[in-house]
């Protein structure tokens, strides 16, 4: 049992204290992130881009996710470990159960799935079977080919109402946490108020219950040379990785990151 559990995250939301989540892909960086006070380590399928050098998350396999989850578990010092289900590893219920078992047996305490209302059934079945689920809404990178690029989601009244309805339906289905990526800040604030479960944002403004960044982005490292609007380089002004991670955690906890300039309008 990690020091940070679902109850810890729920209590942080109730007290209005922010949750700091950061991606990690190996033992050394996982340990450093824990020393900096990160609450949740996310083994994101972003590893397809920042570790493997692909241009999307689609080539990442479940075996890759299991490998990196096991590595992070070995470096973890009390954070809650959240692992992504890779593209098409949750296409039907039987496959979803097997994929979750593999990730949790490798060390995950919670799994993350990308989607919308269609996730209600798998989420409720998984919750019944002892698998806590984080539902990733908004810009879901595994659907980049449907979106036609990495675009802000939930803009305009109809899309915003749909996203709010999806969030509430997934909470009702049994989701333990939501992650909102690249949605207008005002909408993310509304969703965070509307649900009782913790809501983590990336490119979703400061009013969610917590923040997540891809570790390489936080460190100012970019293979493509492009920096998304919602990223801040926390290495700048620091002389160590621990200093950069600690600056991120402090800024999240103090609600100083993200600033208005990192968010999106409706
Ligand atoms: O894969 C990942 O790192 C993620 C974050 C971008 C939230 O899902």
From TrEMBL:
Q: Provide the binding site for 3-methyl-2-oxobutanoate.
A: 45-46, 84, 112
**UniProt-listed CDD domains:** KPHMT-like
Write down how the cofactor binds this protein: Binds 1 Mg(2+) ion per subunit.
Leader sequence range is none
User: What Pfam families does the database record attribute to this sequence?
Assistant: Pantoate_transf
The domain of life is Bacteria
Which pathway does the database say it acts in?
Cofactor biosynthesis; (R)-pantothenate biosynthesis; (R)-pantoate from 3-methyl-2-oxobutanoate: step 1/2
* Primary site of residence: cytoplasm
The reactions it catalyses are: (6R)-5,10-methylene-5,6,7,8-tetrahydrofolate + 3-methyl-2-oxobutanoate + H2O = 2-dehydropantoate + (6S)-5,6,7,8-tetrahydrofolate
Catalytic site: 181
Which UniProt key words apply to this protein? Cytoplasm, Magnesium, Metal-binding, Pantothenate biosynthesis, Transferase
The EC number of this protein is 2.1.2.11
Location in or out of the cell: Cytoplasm
Q: Which cofactor does it need?
A: Mg(2+)
Q: Which HAMAP family match?
A: PanB (MF_00156)
Give the function comment from the record: Catalyzes the reversible reaction in which hydroxymethyl group from 5,10-methylenetetrahydrofolate is transferred onto alpha-ketoisovalerate to form ketopantoate.
Q: Which family does it belong to?
A: Belongs to the PanB family.
Name the record gives this protein:
3-methyl-2-oxobutanoate hydroxymethyltransferase
**Which species is this record about?**
Pseudomonas fluvialis
Gene label: panB2
């Amino acid at each position: 049992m990690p020091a940070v559990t679902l109850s810890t995250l729920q209590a942080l939301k109730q007290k209005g204290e922010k949750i700091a989540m950061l991606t990690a892909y190996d033992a050394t960086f996982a340990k450093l992130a824990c020393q900096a006070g990160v609450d949740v380590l996310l083994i994101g399928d972003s590893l397809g881009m920042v570790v493997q050098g692909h241009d999307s998350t689609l080539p990442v396999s479940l075996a890759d996710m299991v490998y990196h989850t096991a590595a992070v578990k070995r470096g973890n010092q009390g954070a809650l470990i959240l692992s992504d289900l890779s593209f098409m590893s949750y296409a039907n219920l039987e496959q979803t159960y097997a994929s979750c078992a593999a990730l949790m047996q490798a060390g995950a305490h919670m799994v993350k799935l990308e989607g919308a209302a269609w996730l209600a059934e798998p989420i409720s079945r998984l919750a019944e079977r002892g698998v806590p689920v984080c539902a990733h809404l908004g810009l879901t990178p595994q659907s980049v080919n449907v979106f036609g690029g990495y675009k802000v989601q939930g803009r305009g009244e109809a899309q915003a109402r749909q996203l709010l309805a999806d969030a509430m339906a997934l909470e009702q289905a049994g989701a333990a946490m939501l992650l909102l990526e690249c949605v207008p800040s005002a909408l993310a604030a509304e969703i965070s108020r509307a649900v009782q479960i913790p809501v983590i944002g990336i490119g979703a403004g400061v009013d969610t219950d917590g923040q997540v960044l891809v570790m390489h982005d936080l460190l100012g490292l970019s293979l493509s040379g492009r920096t998304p609007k919602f990223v801040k380089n926390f290495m700048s002004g620091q002389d160590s990785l621990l200093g950069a991670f600690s600056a991120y955690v402090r800024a999240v906890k103090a609600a100083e990151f993200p600033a208005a300039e990192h968010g999106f309008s409706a």
